[in-house]
């Protein structure tokens, strides 16, 4: 359009710029977006509400918080979309403290604003905070209707926290609020019930789906696997194939995990070695980790070590630790020491925790001198372990505590209630 000569030339307007900027966001093309931003300035459309909103949203997609904020500050008119787009930029950039401040300053909020805060909190691992926002939404702004994104993110928070009461309450209110049980909602429900220990409820949700898709199957297969029901996971996987539903990489990871925890070596071998030829899924580091864990748990340590050494991608600490853990279970000291030599080539942050496994291996064999040597090496290293955290649900309310808070008066009060 820009290259057309007079008399066929056309001048871009606010509709043109809005559409093109939105396309840049969808196509993940920040360079073109910046060029269009310059053209917007040159043509005097930066004060146009819709053009400016599309620019904020584009920069939010790329987590370019400063650029999004700059456009926001230059606007002469703001609406709820302007505020929400900037909120999304902070959430995408992981700056949830700043997002919370902005959220409190918003003159008007809509369902998308709340969804951004809840999903952003989940994305940053602030699951209790996500549920707090969800509860606050119901109490302070009853006029804002719950949408699919809010429900799915709230259920995800419940799944991570093990907040069964909250999750069940949300499930019960889905029909009440007129929310359509889409594939995403059903998948989130299955995942929530499975991770909260109610695989029976997860099965019931699945059985009520007339035509389950790959996401529904994957969620249930993963749930069955974490409950140690590997044979059930295999059966569900086979049913999926019979229904001509192609598995994705997460499905394969889930069923491999089920094989690992149930000792189904033959089935796991078949799935792993056929995943690329049968379903076009190239094994990733997570699949190799599961496969190594499967072989290690079953006692095939030499084969597992061979798989690790022949991997087309560099093994990470998770793969090595899975093998080292199997050495401890099967009391294979020599192989454990060889693995530690390989782990020693990684940086200190990556090999964190491996020395503890080796120490436990020596301890299980009664080699206390070796335990002492490993502990001495560990004591000289800077402790960079993550701070432990626990969540406790009491009467539908989730309480979050750090390890250092174990003698906190609130914990003592909760313990007394549980007694």
TrEMBL record:
<feature type="repeat" description="PPR">
    <location>
        <begin position="213"/>
        <end position="247"/>
    </location>
</feature>
<dbReference type="Pfam" id="PF20431">
    <property type="entry name" value="E_motif"/>
</dbReference>
<feature type="repeat" description="PPR">
    <location>
        <begin position="79"/>
        <end position="113"/>
    </location>
</feature>
<dbReference type="Pfam" id="PF01535">
    <property type="entry name" value="PPR"/>
</dbReference>
<dbReference type="InterPro" id="IPR011990">
    <property type="entry name" value="TPR-like_helical_dom_sf"/>
</dbReference>
<dbReference type="InterPro" id="IPR046960">
    <property type="entry name" value="PPR_At4g14850-like_plant"/>
</dbReference>
<dbReference type="InterPro" id="IPR002885">
    <property type="entry name" value="PPR_rpt"/>
</dbReference>
<dbReference type="InterPro" id="IPR046848">
    <property type="entry name" value="E_motif"/>
</dbReference>
<keyword id="KW-0677">Repeat</keyword>
<dbReference type="Pfam" id="PF13041">
    <property type="entry name" value="PPR_2"/>
</dbReference>
<protein>
    <submittedName>
        <fullName>Pentatricopeptide repeat-containing protein</fullName>
    </submittedName>
</protein>
